[in-house]
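Form P-L/3: holo structure prediction, ligand NAP.
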Amino acid sequence: MMKHLQDTVTLHNGVKMPGLGLGVFKVEEGDALVQAVKTAIAHGYRSIDTAAIYGNERGVGQGIREALQENAIPRESLFVTSKVWNADLGYESTLAAYETSLKKLGLDYLDLYLIHWPVEGKYKEAWRAMETLYQEGRVKAIGVSNFHIHHLEDLMESARIKPMVDQVEFHPRLSQRDLLRFTQEHGIQMEAWSPLMQGELLSNPTLLELAAKYGKSVAQIILRWDLQHGVITIPKSTKKQRILENATLFDFALSQEDMERIDGLNQNKRIGPDPDHFDF
Ligand SMILES: NC(=O)c1ccc[n+]([C@@H]2O[C@H](COP(=O)([O-])OP(=O)(O)OC[C@H]3O[C@@H](n4cnc5c(N)ncnc54)[C@H](OP(=O)(O)O)[C@@H]3O)[C@@H](O)[C@H]2O)c1
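OUTPUT (holo model):
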């Protein structure tokens, strides 16, 4: 179990990935973005999650470079994730998309590159490109996002390299029991997106009750639940106070009973699209 903000989990290829990171979905290019990334890193975050489609890789890169310099941190101690967008899924196009992301970020490698959505008929070719990038040493780890069990099974039938990570929607209303078990059995690390259900869970009565019991915020209760499930989590905030709050998860532990109470909130309810029915 993680004891510190910078603790890592070891992916199946031996690469270490921080259990907590900063998400930057819907954060536009500009000073607020650069400052959020810098604030997170200055206060101990070591993982940042972006994607080509977020349209903010330049600002993320700027924040990263400035933070590394100002805090005298080496690049190798950071873990940077980006994702190839649906329109770029294909062998050559995925290779090219990787170069474009690197260029925008101003980095010479990523720690993790993900296939953003399982576009039918396209993700296998894209995966071949991911394998090439990995085998050529251009990226430290490769994975997928929004893959259901059947997508993972299908991919693994022809893959030479098993994905190291599956980043999926995961929160107390969508606790992904079967997928979590499947990924654990196969050594694939699950990572939670929209862990706070984009803010929708913050007034849930059960979670408020648990927050009062532990003297923590609802966000902290949820994020701690992620970590105790062995799920990497990447809450998004651009506000300094919340960036700090979301990382203060290591001075308490949820009891088994309370973990199960939170599990009991599951309704298989999504805030984002179902990976079996998306049209973008
Ligand atoms: N792979 C995918 O398809 C996919 C899809 C969606 C997201 N993601 C990744 O996952 C990350 C997180 O998901 P998300 O951004 O959708 O949602 P989220 O992290 O569940 O929630 C973010 C929202 O909660 C607010 N918030 C954050 N911390 C808070 C706190 N301590 N107290 C109260 N409110 C708080 C934020 O507002 P403020 O910013 O105003 O604080 C923001 O409105 C994304 O940024 C992205 O990196 C990936």
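COMMENT: The longest helix spans residues 57-71.
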